Every structure is written in C-alpha cells, then in structure tokens.
UniProtKB/TrEMBL annotation:
NCBIfam families membership: sufS (TIGR01979)
Catalytic activity entry: (sulfur carrier)-H + L-cysteine = (sulfur carrier)-SH + L-alanine
Family in the record: Belongs to the class-V pyridoxal-phosphate-dependent aminotransferase family. Csd subfamily.
Gene3D superfamilies for the chain: Aspartate Aminotransferase, domain 1, Type I PLP-dependent aspartate aminotransferase-like (Major domain)
Keyword Transferase: yes
Name the UniProt record assigns to this protein: Cysteine desulfurase
One function term, GO molecular function aspect: cysteine desulfurase activity
Enzyme Commission (EC) number: 2.8.1.7
Main EC class the enzyme belongs to: transferase
Pfam families registered for this protein in UniProt: Aminotran_5
Length: 432
C-alpha cells in the first residue's frame, strides 16, 4: 500500500475541519479538543448529521412494507444508500448486506457456516460453507476480537480446528507462517489493517494461498475502508466487513460484502420478518440476498447517514485522504519514537501503515498516560483495544493508542507529542 494522489491543501483541510462541528468544542477547562481516537470511532461531518435529521423529519417509515408515500420514500433512500456504499468499495448493490456493525457481519458468516453444517441451505451450502472435524479455520495473531472469537465459537460448535498466522517482532504478518494454510483450511479470516499497529496486511499474498488451498477469505476492512481506496472484488476476497461509525457515518450500521454467488447459496443467520418469501405453519422459504440476511425492521436512518458519509469521502477523493493520512502517520511515528522511554508497538517503517500508533510508556500505566493526555484536552484510547492476543505477542498487557483521521492536523500531532513528552517526568519516572 502506497499513498498516491495529492494530499489535502491547508485550505482544503481547514474546510474539512469546518464540516465537523464537534471538533470546534473545548474540554477540560476550556482546552481545545484534539481528537486522536478515530480508530475507535470517527467524528461526523455536518452532511451526515443533516441527512439523518432530514430522514427522520420528512421520510421516516419502515422499508419494503407498506404502500404509502413515506414507505416508498424510505425504501428508495434505503436502497440508494446500498448502491452508493457498494460503489464506494467496487461492489454491486446486491452484494452488500446491511448489518449493525462489522462484528455482526463476521458472526453472520460464521453462523451461516454452522447452519450449513447442520444441513440448512441444502447440499450446495454444505459444500461451500460447512466445516467439521478435520477442517481448519485460519486467522492471524493480529486480529481484533471481533475477527477471532466468532471463529473460536464456530470451531467449538462444529469440531473444526483454529490455527493462525504468526507475526514478526515488529507486528507484521510473518510470511514464514503462511504455510499454516493447507488443503484442510476452509476459511482464512484476516484484518486488512491492524487497529493496534496500523500495519496493512499483504492481502494479495494471503488470498493467493487461500485460493490455492480452496479456502474462502473473510476480510475485516474496518480500519482500511475509511482511510484507503479499497476495491473489495479486486482484492479477491470472498467476504468483507466494515462499520459505518468508523468512516464518518452513524453508529448502528455496518456492511457485509459477499460475492453474489456465495450469498445466493448461504443460509441465513437471523430469521424472522422481512427476510422471507412464503411462510406456513410447517415451513418457510427465504427471500433472495441481500434481503435474506436483513431480518426485522431495518436501520434506515443509519444507512442514509452512511450514504452521506461515503459521498463526503468520495468528494474529497480517497487518494487525497490516504495521502493526507500518510503524512500524519509519519508525523505520529516520528513524534512518538522521539520521546525517551516510549516504545512504538508495531512497525516503525511508515510503509504499508496507517495513522494508528499504539505505544507503551516505560514505568507508566496506559490509563495514567491517557488521563494525563485527557487533562491536556487530547483524546486517545487506552487498554488492549479488543486485541489481547496481539498485545501478548508484542510483550505488553495494554497500550495507549493515538489514531488520526482525515480531519486531523499536523499541529494537533505536535500538541499530542509535546504532551506525551511530559508524561514520564509528571509521574517521576526518570530512569531508562
């Protein structure tokens, strides 16, 4: 991954920041907010806030039911949002399933696999998706819990075995361990970009291994789609997930991408209203995808907001977004690494890396680091970031994480680094 395109100019960046009302507020006794927790959730531009308000003010109704004008408007907005988000990642509308978030998307695939193993969906579903004793599922040590625990549970339900790709000491996927993918592998699930180290995975290499073994590939693109130009079909993955709230959109909406022929054969996960064709007291037939996977009343306002978010990013240009954030990544890496007693977790080479930098401060607990930065008006994340195995692999229990977004400025990075430089002396840690 190399940033291409022209980064945002100072004038363009100022205009971007003006679009985000929350960034103008103060915290902690009037200090200007520096928001460096974008990997957890992004802030929202005014166009997203307006779209959600406009929907509830003028068009609120249940979709795909009812014959009145509002129901028609809501359904049209809902499907327009699907088409817009699909185009943003190179997919076709019927390959986009609305879910609550990336976590639900991964669980959907994992539960569909166990349903297929039980014979749900017929022989074709069993052939494509089912796992059982003797089969293996491969993940990586870099995974967020959302792309680890559902696979552990699938193994527990079916008797399959979980294996994983290891990491190098600097937190990148170790190619020497790719041979864990074998003819026994049924699924390979990996993150596109780590929410801890910021490292971008060599997806093409992993996909080539998986395809040679006949395995399906599930990509967690939660940290990549908001920051890079991503074409999911071009990556060759079979499924992918990402969340709206990490890409300037609302909470409560996410995307499961699936190749059309796979979604056609995949049995549903959640069942009930809206996802059916014919229901009798004895049995039910299911609607075609993506409706088959969208049981119950849907999150219409959230999809409308997500459409506004991808429109905003597309107008900026994802190459420009990536170029701007590549500059921020270099500033974050250099800044954190320059502070004595502070260790960057993950690669210090800015190549193939996002503006997400986790670090440990010698002699100071991450929560204390975060508290001191918060007192200075700087919002960062502390803890294990839902990635406990990754932290153990890197030799720490927890860390502090600074993560930038398209609205972050170089001046904010400088203010963060200055504050970080005072942490050890504040706590009286002067050795080392």
């Amino acid at each position: 991954m190399t940033a291409v395109g022209q980064a945002l100019s100072a004038t363009e960046l100022a205009a971007v920041r003006a679009d985000f009302p929350l960034l103008g507020r103060t915290v902690r006794d009037g200090r200007e907010l520096v928001y460096l927790d974008t990997a957890a959730t992004s802030q929202k531009p005014q166009c997203v806030l307006d779209a959600v308000e406009e929907y509830y003010t003028r068009s609120n109704a249940a979709v795909h039911r009812g014959a009145h004008a509002l129901a028609e408007e809501a359904t049209e907005l809902y499907e327009q949002a699907r088409a817009a988000v699909a185009a943003f990642v190179g997919a076709r509308p019927h390959e986009v399933v609305w879910v609550k978030n990336a976590t639900e998307g991964i669980n959907l695939v994992a539960y569909a696999a166990s349903n297929a193993a039980l014979g749900r969906g017929g022989e074709r579903a069993r052939e494509l998706f089912a796992v059982g004793p003797g089969d293996e599922i491969v993940v990586t040590e870099a995974e967020h819990h959302a792309n680890l625990v559902p696979w552990q549970e699938l193994c527990a339900r079916t008797g399959a075995t979980l294996r994983w790709i290891g990491l190098t000491d600097d937190g990148r996927l170790d190619p020497a361990t790719f041979d864990v993918i074998t003819e026994r592998t049924r699924y390979v699930a990996l993150t596109h970009a780590s929410n801890v180290t910021g490292a971008v995975s060599p997806v093409a290499d992993v996909v080539a291994r998986a395809k040679a073994a006949g395995a399906l590939v599930v990509l967690d693109a939660s940290q990549s789609v908001p920051h890079l130009a991503v074409d999911l079909p071009a990556l060759g993955v079979d499924f992918a997930v990402f969340s709206g709230h990490k890409m300037l959109g609302p909470t409560g909406v996410g995307v499961l991408y699936g190749r059309a022929e796979l979604l056609e054969a995949m049995p549903p996960f959640l069942t009930g209203g809206s996802m059916v064709e014919v229901v009798t007291m004895e049995a039910t037939t299911y609607a075609p995808p993506p409706t088959r996977f969208e049981a119950g009343t849907q999150m219409v306002a959230e999809t409308v907001g997500l459409r506004a978010a991808v429109g905003y990013l597309a107008e900026l240009g994802m190459d420009a977004v990536a170029a701007h954030e590549a500059q921020l990544a270099a500033l974050l890496l250099d800044g954190v690494a320059s502070v004595p007693g502070v260790r960057v977790l993950g690669p210090t080479d800015p190549a193939d890396r996002l503006a997400v930098v986790a670090f440990s401060v010698d002699g100071v607990h991450p929560h204390d680091v975060g508290q001191l930065l918060d007192d200075a008006g700087i919002a960062v994340r502390v803890g294990h970031h839902c990635a406990q195995p990754l932290h153990r692999r890197l030799g720490v229990h927890a860390s502090t994480r600074a993560s930038a977004g398209v609205y972050t400025t170089a001046e904010e990075i400088e203010r963060f680094v200055d504050a970080l430089g005072g942490v050890r002396s504040f706590f009286g840690v002067t050795h080392g």
